[in-house]
Amino acid sequence: MAGQVRYGEDARMTAVVALTRAMAAAQSPRESGRAAALGACRALSGDFAAVSEWERGLGRLRVLVNVGELAPGEEEFPEDESYPVRDFPEIADFLHQSWTGGGEPSAWVETAGGDENGAYRHQRVAALRRRGRGCCVVAPLVLHGRAWGELYVARRVGRPVFDRADAEFATVLAAVAAAGIAQTERLAEARRLAFTDPLTGLANRRAVDIQLDCALERHRAEAVVVSLVVCDVNGLKRVNDTWGHSVGDRLLERFGSVLSMCGAMLSDALAARLGGDEFCLLAVGPPVEEVIRAAEELCQRAAALELGDGVACGVASTDEPIGPVRSARRLFRLADAAQYRAKAAGARSPVVAGREGPDDPVVRLADAAPPPPGERRRFRGRE
User: Fold this and answer.
1) Beta-bridge partner residues of 153
2) What is the distance between the alpha carbons of residues 123 and 61, in angstroms, rounded to a whole number?
3) Which is nearest to 293 in space by CA: 329, 325, 269, 276?
4) Residue 126: what pLDDT?
5) Is 34 exposed, middle or buried (0-12, 13-18, 19+ CB in 10 A)?
6) Do 289 and 249 contact (CB within 8 A), yes or no?
7) Is 382 buried (19+), middle (13-18) or exposed (0-12) by CB count in 10 A?
8) What is the pLDDT of residues 326-340, one digit of tens each?
9) What's the pLDDT tens digit per position in 175-189?
10) Where are the alpha helices (DSSP H) in the chain?
11) CB atoms closer than 10 angstroms to residue 135
């Protein structure tokens, strides 16, 4: 057909290799979706492309990324652009067949033309016309043998219409993209497990170490305030000994929820379980008084839990007169020392390192020599 866009086998193989490399380089689900959309758009000489995910529980396709020539109202990474699957018969049929184990993932072409009366065939055709696009090719994305979403590539009005060969090529591109998305999801899950406490779902010690190192770099470069709240759940051993470890785990889970809730009072705060009965909040940016208020709220809510005996809470912040903080270890030592003092005194409110002036006992404790054998005090953090 005159004017039709044609590709040689070598060009298409090059496009597949380029898409494969782009998918392999993606480090996050967002990067993976964008790489899939961009790669398919280029490979099919499209003007616009999108990747959408099927949200089974909601019965809709949620758009993850739009690339190319965006129409008014479209965003590259939309917050809430979604479409009911029922509005798109082809997608609905494929999703059903795929989920029940039938059907092969093959792409199809749609055009903006209506029937002889000018009526649109369904919502997708209406969307093409509304956005000035003349045709599209839609390829299902299948992960682990099940429908996951769709890859969508469109051309503007006036450009050559996609044909059957384009649809077959789109099917190949979708398979490559799906493999890349699956790999990225596996990497994301591995990272999540590596940086997440399995019991509470909070960040773990490894995540805190990395975030704290980055935060202190910002503190040195930009004087940003870095605050660390270290918490020790009181009464966990008694709960374990009296009712068993399953009840003790429930106490830790509930305290983790309280910690997360109080952490949400602060911008850029990371809630974490360090291990055992020890937790922390890392806040980067908020002034220390806001951090202290969040810590006070934490103490009050922890005291109201039906299990345990509240929490001992220590705060260390670069916003306090604690001397230079050149390492994560020193901030941890200060927060630990404040928490140690709160524990020893049975305090029901946070103890803040540096609050008592130049001769603050918490600062002296943190900077003192290691404790004698048998003393509980343990200071954490990397040099």
Assistant:
1) 49, 137
2) 13
3) 269
4) 82
5) buried
6) no
7) exposed
8) 899 999 999 999 999
9) 999 999 999 888 887
10) 9-25, 29-43, 89-99, 123-130, 164-194, 205-222, 236-243, 245-263, 288-303, 328-345, 361-367
11) 23
What separation, in Å, do the N-terminal and C-terminal C-alpha atoms of the chain show? 70
Percent of the chain residues topping a pLDDT of 90: 59
> What does residue 35 show for φ and ψ, rounded to 5 degrees?
-65, -40
E-state strands within 95-145 = 108-111, 133-143
SS3 of 305-355: the string is: CCCCCCEEEEEEECCCCCCCCCCHHHHHHHHHHHHHHHHHHCCCCCEECCC
Rounded CA separation 216/325 (Å):
8
Measured between alpha carbons, how far is 203 from 193 in angstroms, rounded to an integer? 9
Per residue in 214-234, pLDDT tens? Answer: 999 999 999 999 999 999 999
Nearest to 316 by CA among 341, 284, 338: 338
Instruction: Give the other-Cβ count within 10 Å of 40's Cβ.
Output: 27
Residue 121 has pLDDT above 60, yes or no: no
What's the mean per-residue pLDDT of the chain?
Answer: 86
Checking if the pLDDT of 381 tops 90, the result is: no
Rg value, the chain, Cα: 28
Q: In the predicted model, is pLDDT for residue 370 greater than 80?
A: no
40 token code pair: 């398919």
- What is the token pair recorded at 127? 């969307």
Q: Note whether 213 and 297 are within 8 A (CB).
A: no
Distance CA 328, CA 313 (A): 18
Q: Which residues of 56-77 are buried (b: 16+ CB within 10 A; e: fewer)?
A: eeeebbebbbbbbbeeeeeeee
pLDDT at res. 61: 87
pTM, 2 dp = 0.61
Question: φ, ψ for residue 317 (rounded to 5)?
Answer: -145, 145
- State yes or no: pLDDT of 237 exceeds 80: yes
- Checking DSSP bridges between strand 146-156 and strand 48-55, what pairing results, if any? antiparallel
Task: Give the mean model confidence (pLDDT) for residues 249-268.
Answer: 92
